[in-house]
Design goal:
The protein has about 375 residues and is of the alpha/beta class. The protein folds into two domains: about 220 residues, Rossmann fold; about 130 residues, 3-Layer(aba) Sandwich (Rossmann fold), CATH 3.40.50.2000. Helix content is about 40%, strand content about 15%. The strands form two sheets. It has a seven-stranded parallel sheet, with helices on both faces. A six-stranded mixed sheet has the order 9-8-10-11-12-13, sandwiched between helices. Helix 7 packs across helix 10. The longest helix is centred in the C-terminal third of the chain and has 18 residues. The N terminus is likely disordered.
Length: about 375
């Protein structure tokens, strides 16, 4: 049964598009959820809807979104009332739902372990999605009824990812494309690549390598070690991909295992082995340029931005027809939760705005790494 203002909202959509507020804990550095927000906002705008972003304003992605005329703000009071809140991350989603008391919301969980991704529960959050099976299990474990926790696989903007020329019969160059790569894990990958005759490069903040537009470099490589949306983007370009990050790795992605691995978001669940030279060599030996082209075509046919946004707009429209809870009833979320969320975001956004050299100097001060860890737990 539609709520009393569902007709007005539907009429607004028909006339001028939906106002969609997207939340994210930060827009810097460039990560999976950051790129997700950018791509979603641009596609909604292209279709005549009105996206807005509640997040920090630090970083090049925030500037890119703002330059397109899409509002990006760390203050909810400066944003118009949305029709729908598309929530990522506990703190900003909770604050947005509490602030805009007429808006319905959906929530997407992107990580099955990070404190900032814990599940916000509220009667006006009408749908909960996880980008992987593990994320869906987290939603259920944290209080979402099983029938209301749904898998919503990740996507990539295939219009930004130009297919590379056909892969060579034998791979020559490999890339570790990761936010979490570090010296110890890289050593095992380097040894396996060296044994296999591969030149290896690495990109990611964990090893001090930041690139403004890493997607533009993917066509320079034949084999990519990555997880999540980074892995999906490399597949869309036509790279052979091995699921890999942290200190773990999984299988070479093939046309036959693609659908199953996508349900794991090419992430932690797929990466079942510890990084080690010999098993990595085994996966590298499965390199097949013909099959990599099949995977590329699967990504471009099934995991593109347009198809994902079709489903999201259907979801937004559906929740607009849901009956809202009594607006005069007490808010079920505790005020302490909102206070903690607000403190966390102020600290997080202030940190995100600092240049990396200054962050490094601060973290070297006594006790600062413990403090940073405590702030993340609060979030």
């Amino acid at each position: 049964m539609a709520g009393p203002d569902a007709g007005d909202a539907g009429q607004r959509e028909a006339m001028a598009g939906l106002r969609v507020l997207i939340t994210n804990v930060t827009l810097s550095p460039r990560s999976g959820t950051v790129v997700y927000v950018r791509d979603l906002a641009f596609e909604l705008q292209r279709r005549g809807h009105m996206p807005m972003v509640f997040s920090s304003t630090a970083g090049d992605v925030a500037q890119e979104i703002g330059a397109a005329g899409i509002p990006v703000s760390p203050r909810l009071s400066g944003l118009p009332e949305p029709d729908v809140i598309h929530g990522h991350h506990y703190a900003p989603t909770l604050l947005a739902v509490r602030h805009f008391r007429s808006a319905r919301a959906i929530h997407v969980c992107h990580d099955h372990r990070l404190p900032q991704d814990r599940t916000p529960l509220h009667p006006r959050i009408r749908r909960h999605f996880g980008v992987s099976r593990l994320a869906v299990r987290r939603l259920i474990a944290e209080g979402v009824p099983p029938d209301d926790a749904t898998l919503l696989p990740n996507f990539v903007d295939t219009t930004r990812l130009t297919p590379r020329p056909p892969l060579p019969q034998r791979p020559r160059r490999a890339l570790v494309f990761s936010h979490s790569a570090h010296g110890n894990s890289l050593a095992e990958v380097r040894a396996a690549c060296r044994d296999s005759g591969l030149e290896l490069d690495a990109m990611g903040p964990g090893i001090g390598t930041r690139v403004a537009d890493p997607d533009s470099l993917l066509s320079d490589y034949d084999l990519v070690f990555a997880k999540g949306r980074a892995a999906l983007g490399a597949m869309a370009v036509g790279n052979a991909v091995i699921a890999c990050d942290y200190d773990r790795f999984g299988p070479m992605v093939t046309a036959s295992n693609f659908d199953d691995l996508r349900r794991s978001n090419f992430g932690f669940e797929a990466m079942r082995e510890r990084l080690a030279r010999e098993p990595l060599r085994r996966e590298i030996a499965l390199y097949d340029p013909v099959d990599a082209a099949r995977v590329r075509d699967l990504v471009r046919a099934r995991a593109g931005l347009s198809e994902a946004v079709d489903r999201l707009i259907e979801t937004y429209t559906a929740v607009l027809g849901d009956t809202l809870p009594d607006r005069t009833a007490p808010d079920p979320t505790r005020s302490l939760d909102a206070m903690r969320a607000s403190v966390f975001l102020r600290a997080y956004w202030g940190w995100a705005a600092l240049p990396q050299p200054r962050k490094d100097r601060i973290l070297d001060l006594p006790g600062m790494r413990r403090l940073a860890s405590a702030v993340r737990r609060v979030g």
